[in-house]
Amino acid sequence: MGLFGIGNKIDVELLRHTPLFAGFTDGELSDVAKLATREDFAPGETIIEQGRYGDACFVISDGQASVYLNDVYATTVREYTAVGEMAILERRPRNATVVAETDVVAARFQVDDFRKVLAKYPTAELRVQELLTNRLRQNASLDDD
Description:
Elements: H1 12-15, H2 26-35, E1 37-41, E2 46-48, E3 56-62, E4 65-69, E5 72-77, E6 82-83, H3 86-89, E7 97-100, E8 104-110, H4 111-120, H5 122-144
Antiparallel strand pairs: 1-8, 2-7, 3-6, 3-8, 4-5, 4-7
Helix pairs in contact: 4-5
């Protein structure tokens, strides 16, 4: 089904299914949805590349992609999954490479714009920081394995 409706605009109700936006209010989701642009990726195309600095994060709308840590397959991500979201928290190299397995439609969010929305909504910013801090812990435990 995907996140995009008529005119390639994000459907706010569907955006609620994305864990990154869990607990956002209607107003917060509406502002976030306005930031999204549609980006299409062909099978085999790199969505994000480990080691590069990110200026955007993506939410998979349709399709699936493989995640690789140090060129080793880690998992497959599907609809409503955010990738590259660590760029929201801090400017550092990407932790993983994400490659489209199928045709992928993704919502692209420019990090600087996203940060402005979070600054407007301190409770949303706190939720995102908590989620991303937990993700950092999970990634660190994977590195220890």
